[in-house]
TrEMBL record:
This is Actin like 10. Belongs to the actin family. Gene3D superfamilies: 3.30.420.40, Actin, Chain A, domain 4. InterPro entries: Actin, ATPase_NBD. It comes from the Eukaryota. Residues 1-29 form the signal peptide. Keywords: Signal. The keyword Protein transport does not apply. Pfam families: Actin (PF00022).
Length: 245
């Protein structure tokens, strides 16, 4: 068993920093110092990729009343979301100005053609504004700031120097730029102007946890903690306590 936040950090070669994960089921902001998670400073957002896919389907049906939800299977919607959606850097401004909507048409592969307009940037917005889905509480940038804020002052700057993005829902174009912009704004608004978070947004970060896991498993220090079948057959279950305690 291993912390996904720690493995995400390990994928970048770091053992201290702030892991900001946005995957299929949930988002987390988790501070890690010297390989240890700070659970009391970890924050969770129950909006992520699956939620956004359902939201996109609802938006499309609302914009096209003749389009039945049966014509929009889940896999097709997920593919459409990944292919066409992006994060707006000025959501309210883009929403007000139709000239900034960048409409596009896509074939769903079942004979159905779907036209997206503002839905392209409205779909990922609940990660930043959960209130759009009726959820109370702040968005991911505010949670990332709170995670840093709850850390001891002596560690805060060091963790802010490595803010690692991980998970497929961080791959939307504009996601990293929006998070960076809003995280810096949170720091200034709450009197932490000297805190300058540095985002690490590597290509392939949707697989960051798996990459980090493979790197950790290749370390000699990790391999020394393996239990072989022969060791278990000789010592039994008490060996688990000897090795892992």
């Amino acid at each position: 068993m291993a912390s996904t936040a720690l493995l995400a950090l390990c994928s970048t070669g770091a053992f201290s920093g702030l892991a900001v994960e946005a995957g299929a089921g949930v988002c987390h902001a988790t501070p890690i110092y010297a390989g240890h998670s700070w659970h009391q400073a970890t924050f969770r957002l129950n909006v992520a990729g699956s939620t956004l896919s359902r939201y996109l389907r609802d938006l499309l049906v609302a914009a096209n009343p003749d389009l039945s939800q049966h014509a929009l299977p889940r896999k097709a919607i997920t593919h459409l979301k990944k292919r066409s959606c992006y994060v707006s850097l000025d959501f309210e401004g883009d929403l007000r100005d139709p000239a900034r909507h960048h409409p596009a048409s896509f074939s769903m592969g079942n004979g159905c053609c779907v036209c997206l307009s503002s839905e392209r940037f409205r779909c990922p917005e609940p990660i930043f504004q959960p209130g759009l889905l009726g959820q109370a509480g702040p968005g991911l940038p505010a949670l990332a700031f709170r995670a840093l804020q709850k850390m001891p002052e002596t560690l805060r700057t060091r963790l802010a120097d490595t803010v690692v993005l991980a998970g497929g829902s961080t791959l939307f174009p504009g996601f990293a730029e929006r998070l960076d912009k809003e995280l810096e704004a949170q720091c200034r608004r709450h009197g932490y102007a000297a805190l300058r978070p540095h985002l690490v947004a590597k290509p392939g970060r949707d697989m960051a946890v798996w990459t980090g896991g493979s790197m950790v498993a290749s370390l000699h220090s990790f391999q020394r903690r393996w239990i072989t079948r022969a060791m278990y057959q000789e010592c039994g279950s008490r060996l688990l306590y000897d090795v892992f305690n």
